[in-house]
Specification:
- The chain has 474 residues and is mainly α.
- Helix content is 70%, strand content 0%.
- It folds into 2 domains: 6-180, no CATH class; 184-462, no CATH class.
């Protein structure tokens, strides 16, 4: 059940009405809604999901007892085993085939038909965070299976994030009966949902065919074509992923629940550290809190902290998919992080810290780092390492004087997308003020006309076939 389909919007409308008509039954209503949402994705995988959640809940009940450590190990082993089986077993077996030079005839086994359950990576990380925090007594455990199930499986976010933390979300569930309908929250929710639909239907899905066409012949692309392909994919994946997250935040506002923002216009970042504070924020926070810091974080020697950074980012790449291209993408971002730390050290030694505060420096840094990110996206999207390496090679050796005339239209479109990204940053930063001005300064008739046009355009694009969200495959 995709967020940008009429059937989901109808489902959401029913849930919304029942949610406010029967406040005492809200937790049970969300429990049922989550079940219906996941059943629509497949009956077999639904039972795997609810089985994993149920086992995790009952195993985790021993986290504060005498055998708490074993409960922690058991819970983490269960969800990681589930993730490894569905997401990485075929990848591992194929690499065993190559290394040992043996034929396992995998195409004739059930592994070839294994489908990745929706949201498996997200609920795995969420359960790991929950049991770790309960074990360390940073979080009061769920009071019932229904509370735990609703927290883990909430249809608002669990298919593709944001990753919820128990410390922020479980208290909201415990107070859910007392939440009141707020017109301001409703308007904000509709605004986020509309923004998400626009990003997905009017931008990401319109860019997708061009991206697919370019990457289908990635081994033949010229330097200019490779840059255009990488630029377009950079905006496709941002618009697609942030669209889902925006809609999740918006649905949360409709129900009076606070869901963390997952993106803050990341392509305006000036360095790697800033990028990961603005891109997939909840995953970045998870990697920091449950991998990087437990490994020693920055409390150890510089060399060790750099190794921790690279390892954590490489693991982040592997989390995205069972392929060497994802691993290289994570490794690449790990080295970007290390490079930024080393660069900061040089700046401090030379006493050039004030240079970084200038507007010109900021503009240049954003320009340079955006292109570094775009190069990384090639490994994320390309089919195979050889295709990715070819694209990067022609991108880095391109003669800017030999750009095909047809590419200038694409480059102008990319520039427009970047300007739109800057406009988004401006609006988000001043959202409250602009919203007030919209209500006070713009005549009601004009506002009604704008709303009508938006509804007509979105309704037109809601019809027909729909592309799934990119992050559903992770």
């Amino acid at each position: 059940m995709l967020f940008h389909t009429p059937i989901f919007l109808g489902f959401l409308g029913i849930v919304f009405c029942l949610y406010y008509f029967f406040p005492r039954l809200r937790l049970y209503l969300l429990t049922l809604a989550n079940i219906i949402f996941y059943l629509s994705a497949g009956v077999a995988y639904f039972f795997v999901f609810i089985g994993i959640v149920t086992l995790s809940y009952y195993i985790s009940r021993g986290l504060l007892g005498k055998y708490g450590k074993w409960s922690l190990i058991g819970s983490i082993s269960l969800v990681l085993g589930n993730l490894l089986f569905f997401k990485y077993s075929l990848f591992l077996l194929r690499n065993v085939e190559k290394v040992l030079g043996i034929g396992l005839n995998l195409q004739s086994t059930f592994w070839a038909d294994l489908v990745l359950p929706i949201g498996i990576s997200f609920y795995t990380f969420q359960i790991i965070a929950y049991v770790t925090d309960v074990y360390k007594r940073k979080l009061e455990p769920a009071k019932s299976w229904i509370e735990f199930w609703t927290f883990i499986s909430l249809f608002i976010h669990s298919a593709a994030g944001p990753i919820l933390r128990g410390k922020e979300f479980l208290p909201q569930l415990r107070n859910i009966q007392n939440l009141k309908f707020k017109p301001t929250g409703f308007k904000l929710g509709i605004a986020y949902i509309t923004m998400g639909l626009a990003k997905k239907l009017l931008l990401a899905d319109q860019i997708a065919p061009e991206v697919n066409a370019f990457f289908a012949r990635s081994a033949e692309l010229s330097g200019a074509e490779a840059w255009v392909a990488a630029y377009l994919f950079a905006f496709q994946i941002y618009m697609d992923f942030s669209a889902y997250s925006d809609m999740a935040v918006g649905i949360g506002h409709l129900l009076g629940l606070r869901i963390d923002l997952n993106f803050r216009t990341p392509y305006l970042s000036a360095n790697s550290g800033e990028f990961w504070r603005r891109w997939h924020i909840t995953l970045s926070g998870w990697i920091r809190d449950y991998i990087y810091i437990p490994l020693g974080g920055s409390r150890v020697s510089k060399l060790r902290s750099y190794a921790n950074l690279v390892f954590a980012m490489t693991l982040s790449g592997l989390w995205h998919g069972a392929a060497w291209t994802f691993i290289i993408w994570g490794l690449y971002h790990g080295f970007l992080q290390v490079g930024h730390h080393i660069y900061k050290g040089w700046i401090q030694k030379l006493g050039w810290e004030k240079l970084q505060t200038s507007r010109l420096y900021r503009v240049v840094a954003v320009f340079v780092f955006f292109h570094l990110v775009v190069i990384g996206w090639v490994f994320f999207r390309a089919q195979g390492i050889s295709n990715a390496l070819h694209m990067v090679k022609v991108m880095l050796t391109m003669n800017p004087l030999h750009i095909q005339p047809a590419m200038y239209e694409y480059l102008a479109f990319v520039a427009a997308l970047f300007l739109l990204h800057m406009l988004e940053a401006y609006i988000v930063k001043r959202f409250s003020r602009l919203s007030l001005l919209w209500q006070l300064k713009v005549p009601a008739l004009v506002r009604a006309a704008v709303y009508t046009i938006i509804i007509i355009v979105l309704q037109y694009n809601l019809e027909g076939e729909h592309n799934s969200f990119i992050y559903f495959q992770f």
